Amino acid sequence: MDLEEAFQLVGEFGSYQKQMVLVLVLLQVYMACQSMLIVLIGAIPEYHIEQGDHSNHEELIKHVTFTEDVNSIVTEWFLLKQQSYKVSLAGSLFFAGVLIGNVFFGPLSDKIGRKPVFLTALFFEVVFGYATAFAPSYEVFALSRLLVGLMNGGMSLVCFVLTQEYVGKAYWAMTGTLTNMTFAVGIALFGALGYYIRPWRTLATAANSPGVLFFLLCVTLPESPRWLYSRGYTEKAEEVLQYIAVRNGNSNAAAKVKLRMCPGSVKTGNQGNNGPGFLDLFTHTVLRWRTVVLMYVWYSCSLVYYGLTMNASEDSGNRYFSVAMYGLVELPAYPLCIYFINKQWAGRRKTMASFLALAGLSCLCTMLVPVTAGALFNATSLALLGKLLVSAAFNIVYVYTTELYPTAVRNAGLGVCSMSCRVGGILAPFVPSMVRQQNIINMTRDKNHQSFFVFTIVFKYEDHFGLSKCSNCGKPKFCFAFCHNVWYSFEPLKLKLCFVCYVFQRELHTSMPFLVFCLSGISAGCLGLLLPETLNKPVTETLDELSSPAYHRIVETKVGS
């Protein structure tokens, strides 16, 4: 029998498989805390700088007074003014580590197995997580975040793949959705944890400690039977399936499990053949363009997802409630995913593309709605809607990618896609931080003024260096600026174009992140339509199976039956 028939015999989602999946799904709470840690421990409180000599950082520290009761790396190491970039840098170092971990551990788990890579990465992530909590300096803290990200990148991918490979293919969408849904719950729980634990070192310790328990629980997990089967370890795969059958209470089926050799698998005794690997993703005719498209889709999902989440720390109001809301808002997305991706008229491809495009349009609308609009329909509610939509797309792309890649290169494929995903994660902390930039030109600000364009052209009078003033509010007049519900434009006869300046002003600048998210979401949704549909199609175990006509097309116009 083949592997799918064996799963039907021993149980596709029996009691023991539910226990294994439960442990791996709950592990997402720990991973969410690690991913979002910098949002709270890097919070920038309100502060006041007294007049004096601010020529260097040491002098600046003497004149800074924090007016908000916040304990973070900013207050401990005075990461202000010229040093403020270090907060975003720490967040980006984490995702840079995740990127490296994806590239290294993904293909490695395809070579030596899922379990050893998973346990090794989880163990060292816990160790480096404690190094974060007890870091004596910013430099040690930043290095520890890089190493935590490195281990997180190796562990998270294998964790997700194991939730798929322990069960029958019919349950992949459900286990994948539960995994991503629990990650969203983890974000909300981290917001609540941060509310009750304010000191950043204590918060980092509390967020990292559950990793110890999860490591002990995961030690007993078996190797993936799908990986063993695809690599030619047929007897070991049979042993794992028989063990699963016994733990499921189906002892009679255990004796009937007899697998035939997987076509195209790496034979155990063939030492000269290392089997498919990383390079096949770009040299194989079917996988090449599929990988390129998926890389961009993953990048866009990550940029919009983490960018909107980390933008919560920029929102006014309770930052802990904002973080929790940005996690809880995802939950309605997952039932929608399960409903749409299993429908013949929607499937994986169309649903993913639609959610991405709608997320981009939501971010576009966010730019056009004033922040001070009504409580129900405002920029924050539209941003939350965008987070919900991109969460749905992110969930689908995880499940979709595992179905598009054969078992022999599944982790390598996920690793490459996640690598590009982490590029978006690296950039994400800097996109919301744009709103903290100072003006290039020192101008009078008015909180009631809101520009509709990202870039503003500045004019000045021909006969002097002063800026033309708005007759209504006295504010420097902009080309096509929106002021007190009246449109103003420059007067060509009185003004002379002297220079064009890209003005990074707070009122204008808050729309910058949403423009980036809008373009990324819409373009990724369009490219996603180039991928083939996988609904109700068999799982490929080896590269040879991709030669089947059902898998040989990049573009597919019909949903598989």
From TrEMBL:
InterPro entries: MFS_dom, MFS_sugar_transport-like, MFS_trans_sf. GO terms for cellular component: membrane. Keywords: Membrane, Transmembrane, Transmembrane helix. One of its GO terms (molecular function) is transmembrane transporter activity. It is found in: Membrane. Residues 21-509 form the Major facilitator superfamily (MFS) profile domain. It is a multi-pass membrane protein. Its main location: membrane. The chain crosses the membrane at residues 21-44, 87-105, 117-136, 142-163, 170-197, 203-221, 291-308, 320-341, 353-376, 382-401. This is Major facilitator superfamily (MFS) profile domain-containing protein. It comes from Oncorhynchus mykiss.
